[in-house]
C-alpha cells in the first residue's frame, strides 16, 4: 500500500490515506453502509473521545486500561480515545431511544476512527494504533427479538463479504465474548499469511473454529489444520450487559437486549491486498479497485501526436455507462513509455486497461485499434484479451462492469 502511493506512514502504527487509498476506503465504506441501510440501520457520528466517568460505569476504564490512549483536559478531567463505542451509544439510547418495540429494533452505526495502544504495531494497517471501523449497535425489547436482529445483521455481513466483495476465503467461527461481555460472538477471519491469528480448519467438511492444539472436527472427527488468518470483523450478542448499567430501558422498565457488530475497514483493505496479491502486483476485490478502467494514451513518436480529443470524447461516452461515472483513469503521462505505465497500472490492479495504439489519425473512432488487458485477483501479469475497435470496447464494458 505504501509503495503504490495509497498510504503514507506518519509514525509507528499510524498512516495517512493518500488520494488512491482514500478512493478504495470510500468504496468499501459505501459497500458496507449500503448493506446496513438496506436492513434499516441508521447512521450516527459519535465523538472520538469519552470521559473516564462514562467508561468507569461499565468497569472497562480499568479493565481496558492497557489498550486505551488516555489524556486529561485543562480541568484535569480524564478522557480516553475510544477503542469501541458501547458505553457512549448506550447512554445516548437511554436518553433518546423511545419507540423501540417488539419487531422494531433500533439499529445505529457509524464509520469512525478507533484507537488502540498496541504494544507492537506491525504489518501496516493490519495492526495499527489508529484505524477506521464500521461499528453497529442494536437495541431490542427482548432476547428473542435481539437474536432475530443478530441474524439479520450477520446475514448482511455475509452479503458484504461473500457477494459484494467476493471474499470467499473468509471463515466465520464461534468465539469467546471476553471483555465485551454477553453470551454469543462470532469472528470473521480472512486467510492470510500475515498470521495475526490462527483458526482450525477441517479440509474435508470445511468446518472452522478457533484454534487449539490437537483439535478434532466436531462434524467428521478428522484432525483439523491450523490456518493463518487475520480477524476482520467481530459480532456479539451482549444481552443487558450495558443497557442495565446505563438505564437504557423500554417503557416496561426492562433493559434493552443489545448486540454489537464491527468491521475493521482499514484492516480489511490491507488483509484483502495481502490475500489477493501476487508479488508486486497489488490486487483488491473488484468493487474496491481504485479505478475500474484505465485508458492509456500512446507516447508521441514522429508525426504521431497523442489523441487527447479522442480520449476525452471516449471518456464522455464511457461515463454514460452504468457504474463508470468518476471511475475512469486517463493515463496521459505521455512522457513515459507505454510499457512503464502499464507496469504501474498492473501494480495498482486496475481491472480493465485499454491501450490506444499509435497512429497518425484518430478519426473516425471505429478505425482506432485498442489493446485490451485485464487484471484479476492473484494474477501476477496482465491477461491479454486482444485488439478491439471503439464499438467493441464499449460492448465489453457494457457486459463486464
UniProtKB/TrEMBL annotation:
Gene3D superfamilies: Anticodon-binding domain, Bira Bifunctional Protein, Domain 2
Enzyme Commission numbers on file: 6.1.1.15
GO biological process: prolyl-tRNA aminoacylation
Domain of life, per lineage: Eukaryota
Cellular component per GO, a single term: mitochondrion
InterPro entries for the chain: aa-tRNA-synt_IIb (IPR002314), aa-tRNA-synth_II (IPR006195), aa-tRNA-synth_II/BPL/LPL (IPR045864), Anticodon-bd_dom_sf (IPR036621), Pro-tRNA-ligase_IIa (IPR002316), Pro-tRNA_synthetase (IPR050062)
Catalysis: reaction(s): tRNA(Pro) + L-proline + ATP = L-prolyl-tRNA(Pro) + AMP + diphosphate
Alphabetical UniProt keywords: Aminoacyl-tRNA synthetase, ATP-binding, Ligase, Nucleotide-binding, Protein biosynthesis
Keyword set includes Protein biosynthesis: yes
Gene Ontology molecular functions: ATP binding; proline-tRNA ligase activity
Aminoacyl-transfer RNA synthetases class-II family profile domain sequence ranges: 21-285
Protein known as: proline--tRNA ligase
Organism: Bursaphelenchus xylophilus
Amino acid at each position: 500500500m505504501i509503495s503504490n502511493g495509497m498510504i503514507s506512514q506518519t509514525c509507528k502504527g499510524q498512516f495517512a490515506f493518500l488520494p488512491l487509498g482514500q478512493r478504495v476506503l470510500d468504496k468499501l465504506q459505501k459497500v458496507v453502509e449500503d448493506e446496513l441501510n438496506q436492513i434499516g440501520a441508521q447512521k450516527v457520528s459519535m465523538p472520538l473521545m469519552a470521559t473516564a466517568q462514562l467508561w468507569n460505569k461499565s468497569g472497562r476504564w480499568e479493565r481496558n486500561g492497557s489498550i486505551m490512549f488516555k489524556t486529561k483536559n485543562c480541568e484535569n478531567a480524564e478522557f480516553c480515545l475510544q477503542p469501541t463505542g458501547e458505553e457512549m451509544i448506550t447512554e445516548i439510547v437511554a436518553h433518546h431511544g423511545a419507540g423501540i418495540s417488539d419487531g422494531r429494533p433500533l439499529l445505529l452505526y457509524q464509520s469512525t476512527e478507533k484507537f488502540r495502544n498496541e504494544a507492537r504495531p506491525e504489518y501496516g494497517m493490519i495492526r495499527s494504533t489508529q484505524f477506521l471501523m464500521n461499528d453497529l449497535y442494536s437495541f431490542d425489547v427482548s432476547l428473542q427479538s435481539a437474536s432475530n436482529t443478530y441474524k439479520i445483521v450477520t446475514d448482511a455481513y455475509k452479503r458484504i463479504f461473500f457477494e459484494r466483495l467476493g471474499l470467499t476465503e473468509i471463515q466465520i467461527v464461534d468465539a469467546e465474548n471476553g471483555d465485551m461481555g454477553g453470551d454469543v460472538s462470532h469472528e470473521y477471519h480472512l486467510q492470510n499469511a500475515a498470521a495475526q491469528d490462527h483458526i482450525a480448519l477441517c479440509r474435508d467438511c470445511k468446518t472452522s473454529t478457533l484454534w487449539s492444539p490437537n483439535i478434532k472436527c466436531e462434524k467428521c472427527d478428522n484432525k483439523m489444520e491450523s490456518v493463518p488468518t487475520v480477524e476482520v470483523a467481530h459480532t456479539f450478542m451482549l444481552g443487558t450487559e450495558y443497557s442495565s448499567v446505563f438505564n437504557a430501558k423500554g417503557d416496561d422498565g426492562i433493559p434493552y437486549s443489545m448486540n454489537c457488530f464491527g468491521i475493521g475497514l482499514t484492516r480489511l483493505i490491507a488483509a484483502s491486498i495481502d490475500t489477493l496479491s501476487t508479488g508486486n502486483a497489488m490486487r483488491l476485490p473488484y468493487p474496491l479497485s481504485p479505478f475500474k478502467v484505465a485508458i492509456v494514451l500512446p507516447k508521441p513518436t514522429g508525426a504521431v501526436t497523442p489523441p487527447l480529443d479522442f480520449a476525452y470524447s471516449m471518456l464522455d461516452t464511457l461515463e454514460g455507462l452504468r457504474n463508470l461515472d468518476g471511475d475512469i483513469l486517463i493515463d496521459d503521462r505521455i512522457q513515459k513509455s507505454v510499457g512503464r505505465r502499464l507496469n504501474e497500472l498492473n501494480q495498482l490492479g486496475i481491472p480493465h486497461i485499454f491501450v490506444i495504439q499509435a497512429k497518425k489519425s484518430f478519426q473516425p473512432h471505429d478505425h482506432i485499434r485498442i489493446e485490451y488487458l485485464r487484471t484479476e485477483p492473484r494474477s501476477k501479469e496482465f491477461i491479454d484479451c486482444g485488439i478491439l475497435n471503439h464499438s467493441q470496447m464499449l460492448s465489453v464494458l457494457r457486459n463486464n462492469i
